[in-house]
Amino acid sequence: MKKCKYPTKIQNDFSPDQIKRVKTILSRPLKDIHASLCELLAEHKNTDLTCILRHLLDSPISETTVSIIGWFFVNSLIPVPVAFLYLKMMMSQLNTPKGFILNHLFARAIFPRLPKYGTYCKSLLTSQALQYYDNELYISIKQLAHEPVCLDYFDTRIHFVLPRTERYFSPITYFEQFSPLPASEPLIQLKHNLFNSIEHARTLTAEQQRLYCVNICLTYPPTSVRIRFPPFLSAICSYSKLLLHDSSNVSWEAFEVHPQLERMGSWIGALTVSQGRPPPLYMLNIPSLLRESIQNGTLGHALVFLTAFYTKVSSLYQPPNPVTNLILEILAAVLRTPGIRTDIIEKIHNFGDLLKVDVSLFFNRNIVIPENSFDRCAQFSTENGSTVFQPAALLSHEVITRYNNFGNSLNNSMNNIDNGFDLSFCLNSYFHYVPNHGMLPQEQQTVFNGTQRIEKYYFVESTSHLMTPRNDRTEQEMLQCIVSLAIADSPILARTASALFKKVTKGMPPLDLAPIFRCAFPNKYILSACLNRHCFAPADINSLFSELLTNPVTAPIAKPMIQEFMPMCFELCPDYSFASVRELAGIPQRKNPTPPIPQPSASHIPLLRAFLNFSRNHDDSSRSEFTAKMSTASVSHIVSLISFVFCATVKRNSPKTPTAIDYSAIDSLCFALGKCAGRIDNGTLTSNCFQAIENIAQSAIDLQPKALFRLVNGLFTWLHFRSKMRMIELLEFLSPSHFPSFSLCWIQLVMHRAAFPNLVRTNESRPMQFCLNFIITCLRLVIDYPDVFYRGVVRILMTTASCAPLFFISYHELFLEHIPLRFVQLRNIILSATVPDGSTPPIGFDYSDTLKSKAIIAVIDPILQKKENDNATVGSNAVFITSILKRSISESNGFIPRIVWQFVFYCVAKSAEINMDNDNIGGLPVVHLFCSILSSFNDASASPILEAVVDQLKYPNNQTTFASSLLFSLFSKSETTNHKELILVTLIKRLMCVTPPPQSVRSLFKKITMMFGNDVREMLIQNDELEAFRAAEAIVVNAGIKRSSSGRIIVEHDHDPVT
């Protein structure tokens, strides 16, 4: 109400006695305040009334102030400008829950004068909730908004409206009784179809009939055919109530009955539609059932049943159907209650979407939900100085009250500190736990300190031997310290400590570590170790993850991590369903069991005997016999051979086999097929072998992926490929897009010497397209799953850069487009490829298609060709280009957008060609163009553009020289220190990486620091970063990183200063 305040303060306009008198009046109950106002008005004490109004306008808006100011309105005691501003302020709050309640009270308070305020009446009608909250007022306002009605005269002094007291649904005192299903009755076999089964049910006794009807519903889907059999409907209703009642005792495991509740709701809805009326109240009173569910903590399960029921009858029971309106009123009251689980809120909104209404509009009265109800979400609480994530049933009244005060606003929950409780701190400490290493024993402090210094190195050896600590500490204290390290936020520390935990707990009785994970969220390493050692029960995992997924603050953080952990949980706990986590995290149900690998056909026994004979003897006669059989073999014959050797591939601890699994049968088959390749049609044999692999791939990848890898790898070794097309087709069939779980094996198969290393050297379009797709697929796997694929993919890139540098040089921008800016090492590897003979390789990508579609080339060509030298024109063109680049950068999500790198590449390539002999480019129009574009971006938005320019620093050539001069000119001409600092930071990130960038990056960094040393020093002193920069500069200029001769460790060595 700042705009409603008078120019002066109330203390300057009224005496202290008046102000004291006013405060005394306003401290009374509302009824007494009204009486005092009437007395002041009768005695014409206008000064006191003005003082009261001034005090109310300066006070925070509340139901009390709105009620009293309404009295001033109806008695025309408020100035017109102030009335206008007050009405404007009330209308601005109309769309908030609290603002709606205040506007409803104010409209009642000024009801006699409402005809004067037509705009305010029309504003009230925009709130759809008014017709449900106060239908009488809604009808009156609707009439007044269209046609002003003069009300009969009455004394406005006595018109004083008290705030509406909060109304509640009456508490449930009687719970509907129902009979459980008979446990002693045998299950009667159903008939061949639904209708025969229903006819048979009519002949059974009452107890048998109930059980039989429930079995019918669970077996057959609902039908639209009219069924007149009341016991059938009664049995379904009774079983639905039984499911909801039993759900109150099993918490999260009750999610397993959701399919049954959905089936029951669909059946009741289908029977209702066929009969044209809802089920009788004595069978199923849905509003009463909802209120009972709220009282029992099973509302989430009841909503599954309710949604399934209304899916069938939504066309019949649309509002204003009285039953539907009552249901919506109950659900609206639940939405207004703070602390409700997010999955329940989502189900309520989905129910409203089904009826095409906004459920919150139907709020009319509150409903009492028990504080320890299962329908409330878990929260953080403080116990003995530690923050613990507890379910609602274990929370204290003070914690629940605190969160109720926060309300449903996530902003309040995240930013407010109430009574010393900082929720944002709790989130950070729970999801990013850092152990107090000072309290650890000496050997574990060594582990902690050692792992912290190797985070940036990408080839840290993971096969080091872990020694079990031996000291005088008790076993319990030692385990506590190890677990504290294992749940740390550092991946290397967590992995090391988890391995130590598995070693220490081997042979020990299972521990219960579930309470620890209430204080810190587990990482995948300790979670895997606990599941292997049975220290974290599946039910506890299900409860913790479900509670995190149903809290509005923790759900966005926990959901992606839980989705990543669940495949491991399914694998290590195959007998537990995790039903609630599946539903809440959106994880699909387990697919149907994989069909087994087909057994060898009996008709192929002669071929199998010939194979066995050749595998044992290796003489010419056995080879001739096997070759003769293979000359007429079809795909099905080869499938039988593969199935036969797969059956013989078993785990075997034998000194004759270097692996735990004996692959000798598979190796023998690959060798035998290779020996046949020269005597029969090689193309037919290869095609049949690959077709057989494709036929059994689905089953083999799910059941024996290592055996399939061994088979394909052996065939690549022994078969002779005249055409690479069939090999490419097989590899594309086995790619991660079709079989994600086979990704690691697929990468190794592609890197076979007959595949990628051979294809990348060809000059044919089809093999080259496959190689491009392979590298891009590897990059995507690294980005999505760095812990699994990073090391292997980095080695592939380094090998390719060394053995086939032309491949990276010709297609480097296509690869960089798929690499986020934070993956510095991958960019360095690709850009470090050099041409051995100094030639200029061809460019293998189109760098102007997007520029042409956006009409950018027509704008920048005159600038690059120096035909446009006017700075004003260049600046206007920069504005046009900047608008396009900003839009793409805002949607880039950490990558360099295609249009950005194409713009930079086009400018650098064309300018380098035109200005080949020009050493001083500072005055070129293209430099002014880049300066104008960068000046329009903030630091975050300018980073992709500068990174794209740094990507042009490659092996020595004209483009590298021009890009280096361009960056130098941008640094010298930059008007802000932010962009200068950003250029330095971009170069330092490349230079600090374990894989060094091209030499041109180091040369540019030294040139900038030597030429602009004073400017750099002043900039760093202003930012208080001089010491950090000196440390980085010392590493960049004077030291490097390389592998030792053994290749197992990383050592540092000194460089001579780069000139």
Helix proportion of residues, in percent?
Answer: 55-70%
* Shape label: globular
Largest sheet: spatial strand order:
1-2
Mean pLDDT: 82
The parts where pLDDT drops under 50 for at least 5 residues are 1-5, 407-420, 452-473, 1039-1059
CATH topology of the largest domain: Serine Threonine Protein Phosphatase 5, Tetratricopeptide repeat
Distance between the termini: 68 Å
How would you describe this protein?
This protein folds into six domains: 10-145; 194-361, Serine Threonine Protein Phosphatase 5, Tetratricopeptide repeat, CATH 1.25.40; 386-399 and 425-454 and 473-574, no CATH class; 591-722, no CATH class; 742-845, Serine Threonine Protein Phosphatase 5, Tetratricopeptide repeat; 847-1038, Serine Threonine Protein Phosphatase 5, Tetratricopeptide repeat (Alpha Horseshoe), CATH 1.25.40. It has 52 helices and six strands. The strands form three sheets. It has a two-stranded antiparallel sheet. The protein has a two-stranded antiparallel ribbon with strand order 3-4. A two-stranded antiparallel ribbon has the order 5-6. The chain is globular.
Topology of this protein?
Layout (H helix, E strand, L loop, with lengths): L9 H4 L2 H11 L3 H13 L3 H13 L4 H12 L5 H13 L4 H13 L8 H8 L4 H4 L1 H12 L47 H8 L4 H14 L10 H18 L10 H18 L10 H11 L2 H15 L8 H14 L6 H14 L23 E5 L2 E5 L6 H10 L3 H6 L1 E2 L2 E2 H9 L10 H11 L22 H12 L4 H14 L19 H9 L5 H12 L5 H18 L6 H7 L19 H13 L2 H12 L3 H13 L16 H13 L5 H22 L1 H14 L6 H9 L9 H8 L5 H4 L5 H20 L1 H18 L1 H12 L7 H8 L17 H5 L3 H8 L6 H20 L7 H17 L10 H11 L3 H12 L7 H16 L3 H16 L6 H13 L1 H10 L3 H13 E5 L6 E5 L5
Antiparallel strand pairs: 1-2, 3-4, 5-6
Helix pairs in contact: 2-4, 5-7, 8-10, 11-12, 12-13, 13-14, 14-16, 15-16, 15-17, 16-18, 22-24, 23-24, 24-25, 25-27, 26-27, 26-28, 29-30, 31-33, 32-34, 33-34, 33-35, 38-39, 39-40, 39-41, 40-41, 44-46, 45-47, 45-48, 47-49, 48-50, 49-50
